[in-house]
Amino acid sequence: MRLFSVGAGASAERTLDGAEHPSAPIPIVGAGVGESVRVPLGETGFDTFPLMLGAAEFGWNVDLETSHGILDRYVEFGGNAIHTADGFSGGRSEHIIGQWLRSRGHRDRTLLSVRIGAHADNPGLGSVNLVRAVEGSLTRLGVERIDVLYLDATLDATTNLEDTLATVEWLVEAGKITTVGAFGFTPERLVEARILASAGYPRIEVIDAPYNLIRRQPFEGDLRLVAGAQNLAVTPSHALEHGFLSGRHRSKALAAQGVRGEQLRSHLNRRGIKILRALDQVATDLSVPVAAVSIAWLLAQRTIAAPIVNTFATDHVDELMQGAGVTLSRAQLADLTRAGI
């Protein structure tokens, strides 16, 4: 049973045994002096900032200079976890992160996660392409090791999972990766992976499943049940649904100006507007940005370790970081959750 605080200004919510609840407020202070808040990334042995900085837009809609500014600002708040993929901008995202890591000397203090399986040169999770993909990412990033390797099954749901995990085992033993995660895995495939882990293969420890206030399925179902039963850390991507849950795109005209115009416009229906109104109310009550409330809702959900957040501008980082310091009351959580039903 959990005891809930009244709002952002109230004391941290705690369980009856006195332990602080994961959605309790995290102290985020002014620019340049952000506290190094960390939460466990499941059973990986890594500790992560409650928000992972996603690099999906780097090299595509965000240039090198702005990308580095976003990374710098994230680190100023105490952030330590960066997430990219070999398929983001055809590998340019990894190049940009690699340049930043070298120029700032931040590799040893950064939790680096990479999703592989969607690069045009090495698609899928077959053994040969898997090794080539990891080597390609290591080269572009300019590092010797990837901390969390996410296996992307969206383009390859047929490769024998045992073969894939055997290759992952070799990559771990070779020191090229530390731990393994999954993206696009069905609940059944995660169960299969756990059975193989009991036979000695590497265990999947983390999953990335697109999840937010407006995109509730398929995560809220068997996938969440399996994640909970296996004690998997969940790092949901699309935390703001391409910016819609930041509250910046409230008309079809504004949505059309965004880089994800078609996707944004698809949410401007009765349900989407209802969700925005609920977010507005909570944001007004707590005097925080709408984006921060969207992040706070995610952090309050079971099994969520650290949402992956993407941004287009340095000043947007400030809004996102506030989400890690917000506690929602039971009533606020219920209102937001109901709005999306």
UniProtKB/TrEMBL annotation:
E.C. number: 1.1.1.-
Any one GO cellular component localisation term in the record: cytosol
Pfam families from the UniProt entry: Aldo_ket_red (PF00248)
Transmembrane regions: none
InterPro entries for the chain: AKR_Detox_Biosynth, NAD(P)_OxRdtase_dom_sf, NADP_OxRdtase_dom
Domain NADP-dependent oxidoreductase: residue ranges: 50-338
Origin superkingdom: Bacteria
Annotated GO MF terms: oxidoreductase activity
UniProt keyword terms in alphabetical order: Oxidoreductase
Annotated PANTHER family: NADH-SPECIFIC METHYLGLYOXAL REDUCTASE-RELATED, OXIDOREDUCTASE-RELATED
Protein name from the UniProt record: General stress protein 69
Organism, as annotated: Microbacterium hydrocarbonoxydans
